[in-house]
Amino acid sequence: MLHLMRWAVVRIPSSLRSRLGLRPRLVRRSILGREVLVLDGSVREKADYDDAWCLACAAHSRIVFDVGSNVGQAALPMLLTGVPELVVLIDANPQALAYAAENIFRNGLWRHSQFVCAFVGATGGDASLLDCGHRCGRELLSATCCYGG
Question: Which domain CATH number covers 135?
Fold first, then answer.
């Protein structure tokens, strides 16, 4: 009976797992020809235009700020290239940021990543980070980033 119960939990669809507050299951995916172990639903199974654009930008960057990183769908491939020295994942949702961190740590890419739980706001050509009240990455909250516009 226990075996059947275990099977039932594993086979619950991702959308239902999310509604029930259950952690996504681990799955193997291939990204840039490298097999990774990630939480289900946190990376696309097939690359698209956005992935190519992010990788092209990262290929010419020492530091990448992934604003609105969510579960790290763009950050993980960038980190796998080994090009950026640092990818800073910024998201206001601590659960999504925790999933991104788990995927990155699980695949040994943590040395080149930092996590900031914050909102990003912009006024007069400067973007600044606004603390969400969580402890992760507070040392980066005083950073100000300029953007074109």
Answer: 3.40.50
| Alpha carbon distance, N-terminus to C-terminus of the chain | 62
The per-residue pLDDT for range 38-71, each reduced to its tens digit, is 998 888 878 788 888 889 988 999 999 999 999 9
One-letter amino acid of 27: V
Residues 110-141 pLDDT 10s: 999 999 998 877 777 777 766 665 544 444 43
Write down the H helix ranges in 20-138. Answer: 49-58, 75-81, 94-106
Where do the H-state alpha helices sit in the chain?
A: 2-10, 14-19, 49-58, 75-81, 94-106
Buried-exposed string 73-92: b where 16+ CB fall within 10 A, e elsewhere: bbbbbbbbeebbeebbbbbb
Burial string for 112-136 (b: 16+ CB within 10 Å, else e) reads: bbbbbbbebeeeeeebebeebeeeb
Mean pLDDT within 74-100: 93
| Total number of domains constituting the chain | 1
- Answer yes or no: are the C-beta atoms of 115 and 140 closer than 8 Å: no
